[in-house]
Amino acid sequence: MARKLDDVIAALPKERQQRVQARAMELATLKDLRLAAEQTKQQLAATLGVGQDTISRLEKRSDMLLSTLRQYVQGMGGNLELVTQFPNRPPVVIEHLGVQASSDKKPRASA
């Protein structure tokens, strides 16, 4: 059975919990995430087919499309998941948000 991260952290000694929280706050930006993945702006830009200046601009943004964030994370070899949490309910992973759906339907003929 899978364990919740919150339960695992709660079982740690208080000092360890504080260190985990401090480290999580250090990884709060896209730049920090890229550095933790040991990638340079040049490497990520080449993977995404954009210029280094585009990576710089993305890392400074406070708001962006989910599809843009998904591409950025996938460019580093990761996977982006959006999880919603409500009181007294299990977390729900929202799928297909920010992903362009492919359609198997044939286009309608106009009348």
Automatic annotation (TrEMBL):
Tell me the superkingdom of the source: Bacteria
SUPFAM superfamilies in the cross-refs: lambda repressor-like DNA-binding domains (SSF47413)
Native organism is Serpentinimonas raichei
Q: Where is the HTH cro/C1-type domain?
A: 29-83
Q: Which InterPro entries does this one have?
A: Cro/C1-type_HTH, Lambda_DNA-bd_dom_sf
Q: What is this protein called?
A: Predicted transcriptional regulators
Gene Ontology molecular function, alphabetical: DNA binding
Q: Which lineage ranks, top first, belong to the organism behind this chain?
A: Bacteria, Pseudomonadati, Pseudomonadota, Betaproteobacteria, Burkholderiales
